[in-house]
Design brief:
One of its GO terms (molecular function) is sequence-specific double-stranded DNA binding. The chain is mainly alpha-helical. The protein is built from six helices and four strands. Helix 3 crosses helix 5.
Length: 146
Amino acid sequence: MCLYNYCQKEYSFLTTSGTTNLKKHLEICKNHQMWLTSKKEKQKSIGDDGKLKTCKLSETVFREATNEMILLRQLLLAFVDSVACKHFCKKAMLYTPHSRRTSSKDIVKMYVEKKEALKRCSYAISNVCPSLLIYGFPKQQVLVTW
């Protein structure tokens, strides 16, 4: 006996016929058809011209946006595991929210990347002529060569 995932029907399969009855049921099962269409469906967004357009939201962008929302709103990491977050993602046909452990790892990684970017930026500024930093940029354009 085997249990079909989409409609929970039980099917028997013999060694002579294999899984032909399961394959035939795949073609007519409404639950499976709904699952296929949901995988093809794309998210809706408003374009620059103000019209509705379809777009595909990647899982990495979804994770990054969720982590940024947690940081900006100063939410607890338990928010990702909450019933409210899972319900919203299900209603909006988004990805399943990641765990709070994954979220904390992503947030630490994002922090380290931003810190490195600031270090590179401050290093670039320290290599500029000190008089320009102290007195500001002159009103005329000056060509500085080293």
